[in-house]
Amino acid sequence: SVSGITAYKNNSGLKYGNTFYAGNGDNVTLTLSHDTPTGYTFTGYTASAGTIDGTALTMPESDVVINAVDAVNTYTVTWVDGDGNSTTDTVAYGTVPTAPQNPTKTGNAQYSYTFSGWDKDITAVTGDVTYTEEDFTKDSSSLDVAVNPASSEVVLAVYLPSEEYSGTTPSNLSSYVPGVKAMT
User: What is the pTM of this model?
Assistant: First the structure.
């Protein structure tokens, strides 16, 4: 006699310890549990043989391995430019999103502009997130040099950011660069 084995009616299977031995074609209802990792969604179970529907398994003529299937969550990443226009990306949990090409701002003869970055550090996605364009920084002064063909006089134009320019022409610029006229 063998102890610890339970025989089920109609020769449909045997159970020994925690292992259930089912017969070919038997419909077996399983009690399954699974811990879904953070950032994933449980989508069901798969069976290496036979068919599984939820927790109901139709037993094949072979051993069966049952696996839980988890799908990675995806989130919406929104990029908002300085004009309020937005673009979105769908990004998988734990992935660092790739920012779009840096926005640009057209300069003029006096100023050029540099993109300052986004309002927060770009980090691995754990939920929906919005990144907003920071303002542009106005680059330092620029310099234009021209030669007057009639007099061969060199004309130097120095452009300072408006917050640094007082509105008056520096009177001593020519003392630093002989033969140079200041322009505003």
Answer: 0.59
